């Protein structure tokens, strides 16, 4: 059973083709992630799915309801949290929650159990104006408001953008809890490390879906030998690695530079010698197992 | 916001009513008396006694008098020809010349009317005294002009202006507040969150309309109170009728504001369009210049101007005490506008793009 079925959806704005023939299915009760750089079309896709925008071609179904013809029904079964904080900043935390509950024809008390875990964290500030909350608290409030009508499918558009690392982690913990209560969650994010927390991820770039996989399979499918390289002059190191004749990809990654080679078999000494020739000191070269970000980088490069 | 709501009507009423008045007191008149007879002196005396005129200069050269008008030292010249008295007695008629500075057409018209009323009164007196048929000064035919200013006998312009300025007040409040509203939600992004809810279009628009409707009605009540206390404006007609019409009128204005708001994307655009529309509505409303003086094409345009209707109704009800029967045409026009604009606003507000 699929909660979201999308078939061949395309959408263009005047000159820009935002989505090109996108198809995917999301299993009921799963946490589905869209990973992609800014401008990939994530927000456009979400806006189509929550009936704010109409696609040019293709069909989309949410819980079996067509997004064009049954948009009214869809609106009461989806929760949407836009990327930009869209609650009333001049209403207090509590007023916002009550307002959205009323708009959906329910009450805060009815569905309080759904948002209890999240809302209890911001409840001490319930009389504060929403505009005066910190970034993390705003996200929690927005999620509470998106959940208050007990949606069957939840759309979260870049919920963790601009939120500190601790709050991001907390936020994903909350998503897991929600998922366990049977809600299908679609989440988009530009942060690749968050992909590992999803059941399935779709890699989206330039309006096209490059790959839909479980995070485990994505890592498992990584065949290249991946090396972490380090030296005293990191900036020069990038340039030198890129100009190495067998180099395939070179990315800075934390303290190291992740490097893959065109050859299947690689002689590590070759590379060390090459770098030593280029005046690099304290060269460190170690083979590592790829994480999901490495996998994405390799997909995005293809 | 709350201080603005209270300060705005007071400032508007005090400043605008005094500034935008056409009240004619102390009209400066230059007398060119070439006759120097007792009759001509009586005529001048009559002007002097009138509360409207002061004789600023006497001369026997028309040229000099014209200078005074050019310099802005006088608004009107009355020129009494030679043998004025003689002709009046002998031929029972003569002519006078009135020269009015007509840069401001409205005030020129008023000065003219005031002068003629003084002259015709003088004419009557002459006729009575001579025991002959009245000597026609204005025209050769025996027309007696009687001026009787109804509903505003002292020609108090404050009385005339206050109802109009109150209309201005509720219009500005209604139009601008509602015009900024939906577009503000677009700018902040809150409209996204609202649009995915099952809320109905008409519910949304009504929700947007009601608060401003109450605020504007309250403003009207407050403005009327201020007008009564400060200017003692007459309230001859039923206040209930005023508020009933106002409630319909506000739907027109608020819907127009919301309509502007739904077709624009930024508050700046909305501001610009609202101002443009409001300027035209207000300047063509008959508040400052009477609609009857406009060219006929402009008069046709004012038929589509709700502000003009409401100002007319306000003046009719407050100053004349007109009842519903007298304002029926205007009222139903407003009702029609209200219906059209509200439907337009609801129709144009899109939850999906």
Explain this structure.
The complex is a heterodimer of chains A (302) and B (353). Chain A has helices spanning 42-49, 71-77, 93-103, 112-122, 135-147, 165-180, 215-220, 234-243, 268-277, 292-301; strands at 2-12, 17-27, 31-35, 57-62, 65-66, 78-81, 153-157, 184-189, 200-205, 208-213, 226-230, 247-253, 256-261, 284-288. Chain A has 302 residues and is α/β, with parallel strands linked by helices. Chain A has 2 domains: 2-220, 3-Layer(aba) Sandwich (Rossmann fold), CATH 3.40.50; 226-301, Alpha-Beta Plaits (2-Layer Sandwich), CATH 3.30.70. In chain A, strand 1 (2-12) and strand 2 form a beta hairpin. The two termini of chain A are 32 Å apart. Chain B has 2 domains: 24-130, 3-Layer(aba) Sandwich (abc type-2 transporter like fold); 157-348, no CATH class. Helices cover 64% and strands 7% of the residues of chain B. A 4-stranded mixed sheet of chain B has the order 2-1-3-4, sandwiched between helices. In chain B, helix 1 (2-19) crosses helix 8 and helix 9 (239-263) packs parallel to helix 13. Chain B is elongated, with a radius of gyration of 27 Å.
Distance between the termini of chain A: 32 Å
Largest sheet of chain A: 6 strands, mixed
CATH class of the largest domain in chain A, named Alpha Beta
Tell me the strand percentage band of chain B.
5-15%
Task: Identify the overall geometry of chain A.
Answer: globular
**Per the principal axes of the C-alpha atoms, what is the gross shape of chain B?**
elongated
| Spatial sequence of strands, sheet with the most strands of chain A | 6-7-8-3-9-10
CATH superfamily of the largest domain in chain A: P-loop containing nucleotide triphosphate hydrolases
Structural class of chain A: alpha/beta
* pLDDT < 50 stretches of chain B: 133-145
Average pLDDT taken over every residue of chain A: 87
Quickly count the domains of chain B: 2
**H-E string of chain A:** EEEHEEHEHHHEHEEEHEHEEHEH
Number of domains of chain A: 2
Radius of gyration of chain A using CA atoms only: 22 Å
Tally of alpha and pi helices of chain A? 10
